[in-house]
Design a protein that fits this description.
With about 140 residues, the chain is mainly beta. The protein has one domain: Pnp Oxidase, Chain A (Roll). About 15% of the residues lie in helices and about 40% in strands. The chain is globular, with a radius of gyration of 15 Å. Strands 1, 2, 3, 4, 5, 6, 7 and 8 form an 8-stranded antiparallel sheet that branches.
Length: about 140
């Protein structure tokens, strides 16, 4: 049986060094929109995403700023985890956030349009709650 636990401190949170995560937003019709993302985190309560200005993520956040992000354990003994928070949209990201994208992905998002996704917008997620999954294997 899988147990859900709420993290009491940032040291108990997700593996923020994971390469990818999953962002869940809500479409206008109420259905979930779940997509893989690249992300960086300044702290446990400040997660940043760079995405296309015209992406479904942006449209959904404009309509409903409540989001969830799923983080895989990737060998972390704490197991998978989910952050629940509020997203805000930004035309620019702080220099230290851009540096984190370069360090983690060898990718500098902006200020020029990205060759693959066009003009960029930045999403900052202020996490409000962390839920921890089971460290047990799903096999």
């Amino acid at each position: 049986m899988e147990h859900e636990a709420v993290a009491s401190s940032p040291s108990e949170m997700a593996n923020l060094s994971a390469r990818d995560a999953w962002l869940a937003t809500q479409n206008r019709n109420g259905s979930p929109h779940l997509v893989p993302i690249w992300f960086v985190a300044q702290q446990a309560d400040s997660i940043w995403i760079a995405t296309g200005l015209n992406s479904a993520k942006v449209a959904n956040i404009r309509n409903n700023s409540r989001v969830s992000i799923g983080f895989p354990a990737e060998g972390d003994n704490g197991g998978d985890s989910v952050a629940i928070g509020v997203a805000t949209l930004h035309e620019e990201a702080p220099a230290d956030v851009l540096s984190l994208f370069v360090s983690k992905y060898q990718w500098h998002p902006g200020p020029e349009p990205d060759a693959d996704i066009g003009e960029l917008l930045y999403i900052k997620i202020a996490t409000q709650r962390w839920m921890m999954g089971s460290p047990a294997s799903n096999e």
